[in-house]
Write a structure and sequence with these properties.
The protein has 15 helices and 23 strands. It is an alpha/beta fold. The chain has two domains: 265 residues, Aldehyde Dehydrogenase, Chain A, domain 1, CATH 3.40.605.10; 177 residues, 3-Layer(aba) Sandwich (Aldehyde Dehydrogenase, Chain A, domain 2). Helix 2 packs antiparallel against helix 4.
Length: 526
């Protein structure tokens, strides 16, 4: 059986001749059911349907999109068991507690936070300058394509995750491009989404799903004249190809690409609680077999006897820890190649280093080390991401060299520093953090980076190559919504022709507006 695609409000048999199957990573066996590779003519139909939906929705209030998002969240929760069991088969991630108890509630929470933002309208930042008679706000940008990753089948799913929620809250239709690792999970989400579309009277082309495209057709999709923007989470190589195509066409594309998330452990912290930190780091690095975009793949240390003891303790914990299952054969292959590349660049293997040891696609928990001088001689090669259950320890010979290492880092999603509670590390902290702060989107103290709270203050972003643009976050409402919007200014436009959020009288939904330099929920002139 070849599963249909969701195009213009209907499940349709794909016109493509190529298909693929999902694989259970734990057993390495294919899962029943074929999924189509959509040809260009099918993608074009989806784009035209999304464009028609976008035209129909012009001027719609945020309440319409909020109602859809909340109805969709309810529909997802009604399918929680089905989604958890299917995602477990397709990813080998545990149904409980990971999928059903953690990731699914996060997913529906994101949708509801996006609904709250859409309803209030404050995310649009209505700005009123009465003296110049100019008013502006953010508004929808048009059809959005979302490319989801392999490692979060719920929270970053192309038809249910954060990019999807943000694009919908901004008032845009979405074309979801599913990930080949979990097409069945994405199909179930799409069934719930279509149910919500129908129950809230949204346009037929509002939410659509295709499972896979060729690389060339993916580039054509993100650069199509009718598309407004694109969100992508995945490998750096594929993301940069899409970015090149989108940039040529002048289309915004928001990328989450790669990150090694440096962790700096200072000497005072090791002396104070080294054994505790060894366990904390090991748990963070090996969580989910290291398949988190915030996985701590690089540790910066200062040479000394206590540091050597810390390294030895971490190596022992890595060797003793259970070996998890990778999401796919490709992840296993890429991780093994990444480890080999780090060794070729000068890193020494402390433990692990071989494929296998766990169920299905797997690789031994792997820890490597290199000295600071070697790292600084080839920083590009030694901070290449090896996505999986491994990390590289870099040992600096002085505080000055530790600061040089921070300066040599590429852009990352996160960076964290562990220091002692008595203040003996403060001088070194002050030396390295100014450089580290410019290299990461989120700076942490005494906390591992693997948790990403869905908070308005969160930045799940950072300088390239962590993302394609350092200004935006992929997590946190309402800030994530701005990626899929455009700034719309009204100059001397007659009052009755203004959008409701820009008129003198407040819309009555609690929206905050910047009126002559002051944030207010009142009428203009009040």
């Amino acid at each position: 059986m070849t599963h249909p695609v969701l195009i213009n409000g209907e499940w349709l048999a794909s016109s493509g001749s190529q298909t693929f199957q999902a694989v259970n990573p734990a057993t390495m066996a294919t899962i029943d059911g074929d999924y189509p590779v959509s040809p260009w003519d099918e993608i074009e139909v989806a784009i035209q349907a999304a464009a028609a939906a976008s035209r129909e929705m012009r001027g719609w209030p945020g309440e319409r999109f909020a109602a859809f998002l909340e109805t969709y969240a309810d529909a997802i929760e009604a399918r929680a068991d089905e989604l958890g069991d299917l995602a477990n088969q397709e990813t080998a991630l545990p149904a409980t507690p990971r999928l059903k108890d953690a990731e699914l509630p996060r997913t529906t929470n994101q949708l509801r936070q996006a609904a709250t933002a859409a309803r209030s309208g404050s995310w649009t930042c209505p700005t009123i300058d009465t003296k110049a008679s100019i008013r502006s706000m953010f508004g929808p940008i048009g059809p959005v394509a979302v490319f989801g990753p392999n490692n979060f089948p719920f929270a970053f799913n192309s038809i249910a995750g954060g990019d999807f929620a943000a694009a919908i809250a901004a008032g845009n239709p979405v074309i979801a491009k599913g990930h080949s690792s979990h097409p069945g999970t994405t199909r179930v989400f799409a069934e719930a989404a279509l149910e919500a579309v129908q129950n809230t009277n949204m346009p037929r082309g509002f939410v659509q799903l295709i499972y896979r495209t060729t690389h060339n057709d993916g580039c054509r999709l993100v650069s199509h004249p009718l598309m407004g923007a694109c969100g992508y989470t995945g490998s750096r190589s594929a993301g940069l190809k899409l970015k090149e195509a989108a940039d040529r066409a002048g289309k915004p594309i928001y990328l989450e690409l790669s990150s090694i998330n440096p962790v700096v452990v200072l000497p005072g912290a090791i002396a104070e609680r080294g054994a505790e930190l060894a366990g904390e780091f090991t748990s963070s690095c090996l969580m989910g077999t290291g398949q988190f975009c915030t996985n701590p793949g690089l540790v910066l240390l200062l040479a000394g006897d206590a540091t050597e003891n810390f390294i030895s303790a971490v190596a022992d914990k890595f060797a003793e820890a259970p070996i998890g299952t990778f999401l796919s054969e490709g992840v296993q292959r890429n991780f093994a190649e990444g480890v080999a590349a780090l060794q070729s660049a000068g890193a020494t293997l402390l433990t692990g280093g071989q494929c296998g040891g766990g169920n299905g696609y797997s690789h031994q928990n792997t820890l490597l080390r290199v000295d600071g001088t070697t790292f600084l001689a080839d920083p590009e090669a030694l901070q290449a991401e090896a996505f999986g259950n491994g990390s590289l320890l870099v040992v600096a010979d002085s505080a000055g060299q530790l600061a040089q290492l921070a300066e040599a880092l590429e852009g990352n999603l996160t960076g964290c520093v562990y220091s002692d509670s008595a203040g003996s590390d403060d001088a070194v902290y002050d030396q390295i953090v100014p450089a580290l702060r410019t290299k990461v989107g989120r700076l942490l103290n005494d906390k591992m980076p693997t948790g990403v709270a869905v908070s308005a203050a969160m930045n799940h972003g950072g300088p390239f190559p962590a993302t394609g643009h350092p200004v935006f976050t992929a997590v946190g409402m309402p800030t994530a919504i701005h990626r899929f919007s455009m700034l719309q200014s009204y100059d001397a436009v007659r009052p009755h022709r203004l959008p409701p959020l820009l008129r003198d009288e407040p819309p009555g939904n609690g929206c905050w507006r910047l009126i002559d330099g002051e944030w207010s929920q009142s009428s203009v002139g009040a």
